[in-house]
């Protein structure tokens, strides 16, 4: 029987523990020992140990996964913080502003500008602008166009960082003069990389400062007690739209005796209703009556114009006449350039005044003195002239019996005339009170009454109505064709002088300048000759839009408005486009026309007058081109 190897023999595993065996039991091989006994009969104790290596590997993998997850979280937080530092979004950086005119004219076109500004470091998208408009607003147009049928939604697209976009909105606003109208707007948008919308809000207000309804009241400023007088009210719609619901109301002084009116009043003796007054339309109301009272009493006749929209009444304007009850019946007829009410003049034009007087009473007047006051930013005081040699000083001229012998005695039924003239300044001055340059004239006659005993009585004064002459703005349209700029830069192409059968292109420019009054609805038009080709290249403008109609061959430049001082306080407004000419054999030796006569038209906002300017046609001669001038004759 083999001896068991020692426990420290090499290659034999060390036993951790052995199964206990009763001493009195016979030696029997144990089943466990059989299982763990090798071929040589040695027992391998390592096989009895529980192997836990798979559990350790699972734990280790879990720890590794948690570490990776923690690393990703840290990286995400760091990335978020880095993104926030570089592209932080604060909705306060996106603003909506509303630009309104300082005042508006009731029933006239009014333009407002809504601007969305993005001062954020990220772009914004899906910009939608909505607004709440005041009562009395009627939509006319906008740029861009509305996105809904109610003209209340605009889609402005996207806006990059540090950029702005605007909506220009035009409409008519009807309201009571002096009332304040408020427009409220909101702009919704979505910042880049965001999944929800933000909103910016703003509001703008404007005051109804005047009305397109104008009233003028004419009649005797002096009348004897109980004598009948006729007073004529003229009303006019100066807007481009019809006015509806007009109500004209007369307020008579105490003691007024109504006789008749034409047309007949709609209600009682005081109210006239005009259902519709078309754009540019006018009308008159004549009222005849007498005034009771004492000599030297003053009475006042007033007409007011209201617009009725449903149950709402909005005061537009009013006009009054103050009448002196007097035994003096000297009638004055005062006019300028044949106009006794409103008049319009151009810079440099001569204003010719005429004052006619007539004694319609029973008393003789003596020692009459006529005084005329002239004022306004359009007045050239150095040009005053009259028929009698009156002196013009400090804005006034005076005539008395020494200059005009007929003023020594004005008998019943007699009459006379005084005439004088003055020029408008070549460069008139605007006045903020008037809204534009004017020349204002007022005449008064001081009379001494001669009674039956030839004893002079108290002196009384008869005054005329003021004559206000509004001065037109001086607007210029310059047309220029170039092959080279003033700096020598070539903007044309092709042979110069032009040659038969070869194309030469030219750059055509329109320049606008304006002085004292803003112009509305400005258009510049010209016809392109049949032999000239509109290339469609190099078309640009500093304001407005330029279009060419191939059918009519008319090129049109359109602007909503031409501001005051363009070309003086601010640079000229201009547009440019390219025309090409390929001369035919019949053109040899000629100077062809590139662009026929241009025409500017617009409405002077202060005078309400249409302005037309027509510069000459443009040829290939190019007189203003420093390098190409005189090279316009076609060569064969």
What does this structure look like?
By secondary structure, this protein is mainly β. Among the domains are: 60-89; 91-211, Immunoglobulin-like (Sandwich); 328-471, Immunoglobulin-like (Sandwich), CATH 2.60.40; 476-619, Immunoglobulin-like (Sandwich). It has two helices and 42 strands. The strands form nine sheets. Strands 20, 22, 24, 25, 26, 28, 29 and 30 form an eight-stranded mixed sheet that branches. It is flat. The relative contact order is 0.07.
Descriptive tags:
636 residues; mainly beta; Immunoglobulin-like; 8-stranded mixed sheet; 5-stranded mixed sheet; 2 helices; 6% helix; flat; disordered N terminus
Q: Which helices and strands appear, and what pairs or packs with what?
A:
Layout: H1 31-35, H2 53-87, E1 94-99, E2 103-106, E3 109-118, E4 124-132, E5 137-143, E6 153-159, E7 163-173, E8 180-191, E9 198-211, E10 213-218, E11 222-223, E12 228-237, E13 243-251, E14 256-262, E15 271-277, E16 282-291, E17 298-309, E18 312-325, E19 330-336, E20 343-345, E21 350-359, E22 364-375, E23 379-386, E24 392-393, E25 396-399, E26 409-410, E27 415-424, E28 438-450, E29 456-463, E30 467-471, E31 476-482, E32 504-513, E33 519-527, E34 532-534, E35 540-541, E36 545-549, E37 554-562, E38 573-581, E39 593-595, E40 599-604, E41 610-613, E42 618-619
Parallel strand pairs: 2-9, 11-18, 20-30
Antiparallel strand pairs: 1-3, 3-7, 4-6, 4-8, 5-7, 8-9, 10-12, 12-16, 13-15, 13-17, 14-16, 17-18, 19-21, 21-27, 22-25, 22-26, 22-28, 23-27, 24-25, 28-29, 28-30, 31-32, 32-38, 33-37, 33-40, 34-38, 35-38, 36-37, 39-42, 40-41
